[in-house]
């Protein structure tokens, strides 16, 4: 028989200050989690259409702080349970929420959050939704304009529509003839995009060939939530930012067989003016140098023969030959009941929804194994493992058997 886990959640750490401070602000559900000198009060008023708010009480200064909150804020629900994980994030269980919307992480001191605190010079927290299983790493495809990135990505999406999803970037450039807003790009005004960048809505952004381009956090979340592997078509500067982020992507640089051939492809596409073609070719020289020697990229592929390059790409992604038939299954939602308590034991979060009457009933515990979390804000927290079990017996080893 193992040691029973300590129950330390559901606002048990509330202190008198909270009632005088922010307690009165949150009339609905709220929970408090203390990490070091800071107490994170997460909650809101009784209005399910409103987002959950976060306030921080800093014991060292005795002050309340309203942090900048990044990522998609969850809406309110019937109640919240919270528990600190590794002191850098808080796992939140929303009571009575839709299966795909009940496990969330509020990152308070992860790498991403620390970087954002440095940039913004203020307190920052970031939401990230938990997804079950281990959706494959996102794929960044980069390379000079006209090398064939879009062509290769289209081939991949056509052959494996349920496996890959395209991250639809924002751009301030004008749409080309056949391009559709929301499909090829989110076409936007510079002032709007600059404001959204300032508001922390982008994973990365860069000025490319005279226009702003960027990947929004939402663009990545949409693909991950559909259970698909996210593909990003971005320039070298963007790839560098992604490499430094917590997105844990595979970075691939596509090279043309020669600069002459690159020019031929750009011209034959007939989508740019002469000035724009010259600018893109000039930028291509720098991009080629950085792509090949900067150490940003995990793989370099030469797009000489299109079919040959496509086969190499598939091989790299582990979907060549026989494996091609295997589709990555969508991360499933985690079905949790409304009434529960949450506790922690080593790397396992135990959600107990048994009642005295149901004491003997089977499957009254749900266990989240958080030992292999991947990703996180911006984006999604992957790698959650979920089991059901019926008691604390078996030293919790029994939990290792999927139900
Ligand atoms: N291996 C290849 N051989 C010959 N033509 C190719 C090859 N690969 C792509 N192309 C052609 O080159 C042109 C440019 O390709 P594509 O639009 O995919 O480039 P891109 O890298 O996505 O460019 P951009 O960064 O400007 O969006 C297209 O007309 C495409 O059909
Ligand atoms: N850093 C980013 N670069 C991006 C993004 N979306 C596209 N791009 C790159 O811009 C150039 C030009 O694209 P085009 O569609 O105008 O030909 C190309 O290299 C793309 O890879 C983005 O979100 N971020």
Automatic annotation (TrEMBL):
Gene3D superfamilies: P-loop containing nucleotide triphosphate hydrolases. Its EC number is 2.7.4.8. It catalyses: GMP + ATP = GDP + ADP. It comes from Populus euphratica (Euphrates poplar). Residues 136-318 form the Guanylate kinase-like domain. PROSITE patterns: GUANYLATE_KINASE_1, GUANYLATE_KINASE_2. NCBIfam families: guanyl_kin (TIGR03263). It comes from the Eukaryota. Belongs to the guanylate kinase family. The gene is LOC105131837. InterPro entries: Gal_Oxase/kelch_b-propeller, GK/Ca_channel_bsu, Guanylate_kin-like_dom, Guanylate_kinase, Guanylate_kinase_CS, P-loop_NTPase. This is Guanylate kinase 1. GO terms for cellular component: cytosol. It is an enzyme of class 2 (transferase). The keyword Membrane does not apply.
């Amino acid at each position: 028989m193992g040691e029973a886990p300590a129950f330390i959640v559901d606002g048990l750490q509330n202190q008198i200050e909270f009632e005088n401070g922010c307690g009165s602000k949150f009339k609905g559900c709220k929970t408090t989690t203390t990490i070091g000198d800071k107490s994170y009060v997460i909650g809101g008023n009784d209005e399910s259409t409103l987002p959950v708010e976060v306030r921080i009480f800093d014991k060292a200064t005795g002050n309340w702080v309203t942090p900048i909150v990044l990522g998609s804020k969850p809406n309110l629900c019937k109640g919240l349970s919270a528990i600190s994980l590794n002191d850098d994030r808080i796992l939140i269980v929303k009571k009575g929420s839709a299966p795909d919307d009940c496990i969330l992480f509020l990152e308070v001191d992860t790498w991403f959050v620390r970087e954002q605190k440095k940039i913004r010079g203020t307190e920052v927290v970031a939401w990230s939704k938990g997804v079950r299983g281990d959706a494959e790493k996102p794929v960044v495809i980069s390379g000079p304009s006209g090398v064939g990135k879009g062509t290769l990505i289209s081939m991949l999406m056509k052959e494996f529509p349920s496996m890959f999803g395209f991250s639809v970037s924002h751009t301030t450039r004008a749409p080309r003839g056949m391009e559709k807003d929301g499909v090829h790009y989110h076409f936007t005004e510079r002032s709007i995009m600059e404001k959204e960048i300032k508001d922390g809505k982008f994973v990365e952004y860069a000025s490319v060939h005279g226009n702003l381009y960027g990947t929004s956090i939402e663009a990545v979340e949409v693909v991950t939530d559909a259970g698909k592997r996210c593909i990003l078509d971005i320039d070298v500067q963007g790839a560098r930012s992604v490499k430094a982020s917590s997105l844990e992507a595979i970075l691939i640089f596509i090279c043309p067989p020669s600069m002459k051939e690159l020019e031929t492809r750009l011209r034959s596409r007939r989508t740019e003016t002469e000035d724009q073609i010259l600018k893109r070719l000039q930028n291509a020289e720098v991009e080629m140098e950085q792509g090949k020697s900067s150490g940003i990229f995990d793989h370099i592929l030469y797009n000489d023969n299109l079919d040959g390059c496509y086969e190499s790409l598939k091989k790299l992604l582990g979907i060549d030959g026989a494996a091609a038939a295997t589709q990555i299954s969508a991360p499933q939602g985690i079905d949790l009941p409304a009434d529960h308590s949450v506790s922690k034991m080593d790397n396992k979060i135990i959600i107990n929804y048994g009642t005295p009457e149901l004491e003997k009933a089977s499957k009254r515990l749900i266990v989240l194994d958080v030992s292999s979390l991947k990703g996180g804000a911006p984006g999604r927290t992957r790698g959650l493992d979920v089991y059901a079990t019926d008691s604390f017996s078996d030293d919790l080893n029994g939990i290792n058997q999927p139900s």
